Amino acid sequence: MTAPAAPAAPAGTAAHPEPGRPRSGHRALLEHLRPQRGRLTAGVVTGLVGSVLGLAQPLAAERVVDDLGHGRPAAGPVVVLSLLVAAGAVLVGLGHYLLQCSAESLVRTARCRLTDRILRLRVCVVERAEPGDLIARVTSDTTLLRQTTPLMVAAAVTGTLVTVATVVLMGLLDAVLLGVTLTVVALVAVLVAVVAPRIGRATRGTQEAVGRMGAALERALGAFRTVKASGAERQETAALHRAAEEARRAGVRAAAWEAVSATASAVVVQVSFLVVLGVGGARVASGDIRVSTLVAFLLYLFALAPRISQMAEGVGQLQMAAAAAGRIGDVEELAAERTDRVREEDGTEEVREEDGTDRVREEDGTEEVREEDGTDRVREEDGAEEVREEDGSDGVREEDGSAAGGPLGVAFDRVCFGYRPGTPRVHHEVTFTVPARGLTAFVGPSGAGKTTVFSLLERFYEPDSGRVLLDGRDIRQWPLALLRARIGYVEQDAPVLAGTLRDNLTLGAADPSAGDLARALSLTRLDAVADRLPHGLDTDVGHRGSRLSGGERQRVALARALLRRPRLLLLDEATSQLDAANEAALRETIADLARDTTVLVVAHRLSTVTSADRIVVMEAGRVRAVGTHAELLARDALYRRLARTQSLDR
Ligand SMILES: Nc1ncnc2c1ncn2[C@@H]1O[C@H](COP(=O)(O)OP(=O)(O)OP(=O)(O)O)[C@@H](O)[C@H]1O
């Protein structure tokens, strides 16, 4: 069976946002800032008090100059000035630290939200996305958000307030000199308004290029052996270098605009000093103002200059933060399976599913479920279940999950399905019924749609029309987590995750007992493998299980599925890489399991399924025939042909 291919993402999917049509970054940024408003306010207020103390310094300095000019003792004003300088510096530093702390919290929250979202994305969405780009959004974009937030907030609030207060105080000192200063501020404001959007666009370009680099790296590392064996290192390196170069160019563009903004505002501010000095000197000479007033005014201008630069820089930071927040926000807009999970300290777990089901799971294993249709259900640890329907009727559901009275097993009822709108259908009115117990095999030519049957059962995708039923109930009505908890799925390429053998076996299983673990190991003949490994079950199996053989990986995947004690076991070419002895043993195990479980297998080698209770023959997305090996040999030409090519037609 073909592993689900990852087709190239069409332009404009949210995982590859279209350049020039980014999600509103400013709104997304506001959403990130809102939960931190308390901490941000503390940081801003502390910094602000420090800045206000700074503002009082020129007044104290004016007093010192006047006292010295008139030969009066200036010790008192000097002490006050020193205290103002020290306290102002400490408070400004503290404010900066508090802002940094809130930026760290903001980023932690953003990362957690983002990773939660990514792991809940729909399978079809992840197949269209570039994993490396998604990773870059969690790492690089959130880091940018952290770096820019404190500066931006400080500039926005402290900068603005201090500037306004400084301007008022300057106006009180001399209106003419203030007029000169405001002309300068207006010049800087125009400049910033022109440059800021360009900084934002260039930053988004940089982050997108970083995302492309992540994607290229993920592609190369994901097929590392193939890249090496094909001698494709140069080719892959070239792709990475191209992405790095694009990131550099976009970064340089952003830096150039920032430099334009910073240099121009610095020059304008310096010019304003000279102009204020010239005009102020003339006004002192004509007796309009005192020398001390000019000194105080220049000190205010001195204090104002960095604020103006800070605000210009802050607007640049805002554009960068908005670019990052926009890219993070794009992921939050991708379609996800909605399952909210809250785990309390006492072990109780509350889950809200996509379909509106609420579930409370107690530590003793009891589970209460309230479905959207009003049905309440209490499930005991032993598997028994009490059901209270909305209409008040009570029912008891069997341990196997069947609805009282409903047909057990799996059924496809005229299912039509295509992976994407506008692409040819993969299933055309697929219809079959499988009883609750027994082994059912799916066979047929490559691309016939066999794996797709399993993907629909797992609800990785929804049919375009028709119904998929498990135990008499449309699977769309099953709470998603419950449905998947009932299914053990061994994929075709038996993925093994980085980590220890134990991590892999217990993936998704609550906390299996030693007995359950030993049973799963022995059923899959992994016990001998575990004994051989240097640290037994705690041996690291490497990236994607690279330290295990293909057959061992398949057995790990099978043991993982068995540990879930599934109601329905889906095996997609799950024994294809096993040696003859292991395969024969596992076939017996699977036959045993099929006595009280629904087992569906996909097999290319008919020899592995000739003894199945029933075989479903698929061709080009349709069910051609259903029967036992002998029945199908007698009445289905395609099956006969498949059997003949494998010398099984006798
Ligand atoms: N994730 C996917 N996105 C888009 N098309 C897909 C995806 N997975 C499979 N297909 C297409 O759907 C069709 C049926 O695929 P499926 O994997 O169900 O076939 P199969 O019978 O299991 O094939 P094989 O025996 O080769 O594994 C194929 O044409 C395949 O290219």
UniProtKB/TrEMBL annotation:
- A Pfam family that this protein carries is ABC_membrane
Membrane disposition: Multi-pass membrane protein
Q: Where are the transmembrane segments?
A: 40-59, 79-99, 151-170, 176-196, 255-277
Residue spans of biased composition, Basic and acidic residues class: 336-345
Where does it reside?
Answer: Cell membrane
ABC transporter domain ranges (all copies): 410-645
Task: Return the similarity comment.
Answer: Belongs to the ABC transporter superfamily. Lipid exporter (TC 3.A.1.106) family.
Q: What is this protein called?
A: ABC transporter ATP-binding protein
- What is the organism of origin for this protein? Streptomyces albireticuli
The upper taxonomy is: Bacteria, Bacillati, Actinomycetota, Actinomycetes, Kitasatosporales
